[in-house]
Amino acid sequence: MKRIKFITCIYNNLYGTIYGGRPNRELHYKWSLLSILKISDADFVCYTSKDEYQELYNFFHIENGIDENKLEIRVFNLSDTPHSDILQKYKDVEKIKKGDRCLEIQYMKLNWFNFEDGSYDYYYWIDSGLSHCGLIPKKYLSQEGPNNRGYYESSLFSNKWVNNLVNSSNDKFLLIGKENKRNFWSQTVNQKHFKVYDNSIHVIGGLFGGKKELWSEIIDLFNVNLNVVSNFDKRLYHEEDILTLMYRNNSELFESLYFETWWHEDERINGIDDMVDFTKKNKSFYRVLEELNNG
User: E-strand spans in 43-126?
Assistant: First the structure.
């Protein structure tokens, strides 16, 4: 049987600090990760701060009975990132304090693999907050439980899902790409860095990975590209922009899954009167999860 491990993190108190991050996400991250943890065919490691360790330990291991062999909670100081030099060089700290994205976390998503002992066959990064009603419609949510837990508890994260995720990799490093033309989502790095410029797909940073043997090459490629584009353009990019560049310039290394919009049929979006019709014409993110459950 294939041994599978997910790497993730929870840092709740970064908004307004030198790191930056989304505010008021504590319950979101915890309930979402708890939903994902029902996958019994995989183990997990979650990085967090020294100050948050005990709270997460109590929530997962004591209050909700998650075995410590199933989920290991590790302390990592974000100031110890190997990207400190490039961050110090180009980081706009005052802007970051008001922002909702942490560059240290973004750049460590791949690099946390370096702390693994390689005892698992497959490793995947997964954002701890990926299971929630903003991405997943009611038909796949329990809609029950304390503290609005039902907004995060989804049936889409299952053993069948994770095993089909592994099979979808086809011995390559798996990425998920969002359509970026009709439903524009993001700019890219400077066009000069592309062998052939193409921004029609934007790689997301919420889920990626594959065989353990593939990770070192991908990490090296990420770190090299990060340093090259940052120093050339004298600025810092999100990890998704670097991943998109890698996907275009080194396509032979990657397998990809595809979606067209984050929104689903239960949502109400300004300018769109018929969400059911919209999501029939545009593949929602949750359909990627759905397909892996049905495959």
Answer: 43-48, 71-75, 122-126
